[in-house]
Amino acid sequence: MAACINNSRNQCTYITVDSRCSQITNSLSKIIKLCISNSSSRPINQYAFCTQEKHCENQEKHSEDQTWQKIRQEAEFDSAQEPILSEFYNSAILSHTSLESALANHLSLKLCNPSLSRDALYGVFCKALIEEDGGGIRRAIRDDLKAVRERDPACVSYVHCLLNFKGFLACQAHRLAHHFWIRGRTVLALLIQNRVSEVFAVDIHPAAEIGSGIVFDHATGVVIGETAVVGNDVTILHSVTLGGTGKVEGDRHPKIGDGVVIGAGAKVLGNIRVGEYAKIGAGSVVLKEVPPRATAVGNPARLVGFR
Questions:
Q1: C-alpha angle with apex 62: 58 to 64, nearest 5 degrees?
Q2: Strands (E), 179-306
Q3: Which of 30, 36, 165, 176 is 20 to 30 A off residue 208, Cα-Cα?
Q4: Predicted TM-score (pTM) of this structure
């Protein structure tokens, strides 16, 4: 799901909504009820979910998914190391046949509330990831996992990132919210944004365009505005704002190029461009464009070098 940094926002091309959406959703609800009724005699595991739903499985396509196989191996290893977590790893990872199913289940558990059921969220997340996507979100998920594993020294494994890194989870939830937003399901997209803000303390407008290979390190307090565009392989630390300068309409948020690193607490404000592979120092306030490969620090930010 590459961000369209160099193009106007209305030039991006996306897949249209599946006309069978309501039929599939109704069928999914029936399957969920059947799964729940068949398992009513067993103890309830808050993390478990019926994984027999073909709606969220595509075993043939993912049989050679090396990232998913690595995650399963890590989950098996962790389960052996900490037997007390074996049930958790089984229901969160090992009982699923694809990364998409596991991620949809994990996000739905995190974002549900008493009036928004996990089953309903799981259904719409699976449909977006498997049937409507065309592969864009799926590729971005794997790119993000690899980016966090390679660029964050605190990440010890892929499964660690998938289950425990709220920056990664917030980013994937945004990808789903953006998916719904561009298909006209704005109410659902905004609801997901709100739940992500409440649960992960990350506030990204669902219209914002975000590339792949993204690292939200720590992530707490990250705010990204409606018309912001973030390129590929970008690293953003906590308390970063990609915001506006007071304009109430139009293209009013930053455009962040590929490979940019934005330090903790930095604010990039207005419809300005931060060039490819630039660095923004912690606590900086950026009000003017930053050239490619430049380093900007201070309030207001000034250029101190190039790389």
A1: 150
A2: 203-204, 209-210, 215-216, 223-224, 229-230, 235-236, 241-243, 255-256, 261-262, 267-269, 273-274, 279-280, 285-286, 294-297, 302-306
A3: 165
A4: 0.80
* Residue 266 DSSP one-character state: -
Residues 229 and 209: beta-carbon distance below 8 Å: yes
Dist. CA 245–CA 229, nearest whole Å: 16
Tokens of 193: 């944004």
Residue 51 burial by Cβ neighbours in a 10 Å radius (0-12, 13-18, 19+):
middle
Number of H helices, E strands in the chain: 10, 15
> Which residues, 6+ apart, have CB-to-CB distance to 24 below 8 Å?
18, 55, 127, 131
Domain spanning 65-201: CATH 1.10.3130.10: yes
Instruction: At 248, give phi and psi (nearest 5°).
Output: -100, -5
Q: How far is CA 223 from the centre of its chain?
A: 14
Q: Which residue has the higher pLDDT, 100 or 11?
A: 100
What average pLDDT does this structure show over 251-262? Answer: 98
Query: Which of 3.40.190.10, 3.90.1150.10, 2.160.10.10, 1.10.3720.10 would CATH assign to domain 208-307?
Result: 2.160.10.10
Q: Residues of 153-174 as b/e, b for ≥16 C-beta within 10 angstroms? A: eebebbbbbbbebbbbbbbbbb
Written as six digits, the tokens of 116 are 């928004």
Measured distance CA(275)–CA(305) in Å, rounded: 14
Q: Which amino acid is it at 262? A: I
